[in-house]
Amino acid sequence: MTALREAMGDEDFDRAWAEGAALSTDEAIAYAQRGRGERKRPARGWGSLTPTERDVVRLVSEGLSNKDIAKRLFVSPRTVQTHLTHVYAKLGLASRVQLVDEAARRGSPS
């Protein structure tokens, strides 16, 4: 736990701990068992996105802020930004607006 606290910082660790503690047993099990998809993916394109990156794209397309997405996914806003950075690189996009436009054009990736 100490290593996690040091890696995350006190504020993010305490927030994540509180969010986890507030989950029901069923919610905690569902979260722990959430599928992560296949390990071998293409390096670029929609098929390269992880399940979590697809969730982030869907929530961005719904108009949620990074902070709101973080709450929904039980991660920090910084983690959401990291996912978005990866999504932009994989899809060859430069902004949130481009991402929303591309997701709408192609249909939601989730």
How does this structure look, described?
One of its GO terms (biological process) is regulation of DNA-templated transcription. Residues 42-107 form the HTH luxR-type domain. This is LuxR family transcriptional regulator. There is one protein chain. This protein is mainly α. It has seven helices and no strands. The radius of gyration is 15 Å and the shape is globular. The protein starts with a helix and ends with a helix. The mean pLDDT is 87.
Described by the principal axes of the CA atoms, the overall outline is: globular
Query: Biggest sheet: strands, sense, closure?
Result: none
| Number of discrete helical segments | 7
Rounded average pLDDT:
87
Query: Distance between termini?
Result: 33 Å
Percent of residues in helices: 55-70%
Q: What would CATH call the homologous superfamily of the largest domain? A: Winged helix-like DNA-binding domain superfamily/Winged helix DNA-binding domain
Strand portion, in percent?
A: under 5%
What structural category arises from helix and sheet content? Answer: mainly alpha
The CATH topology of the largest domain, please? Arc Repressor Mutant, subunit A
Overall number of structural domains: 2
Which CATH architecture of the largest domain would you pick? Orthogonal Bundle
In total, the number of strands is 0
Regions with little confidence, pLDDT below 50 for 5+ residues: none
Give the radius of gyration: 15 Å
Supply the CATH class of the largest domain. Mainly Alpha
> What order do the helices and strands follow?
HHHHHHH
Protein name: LuxR family transcriptional regulator
Pfam families: GerE
Domain HTH luxR-type: 42-107
GO molecular function: DNA binding
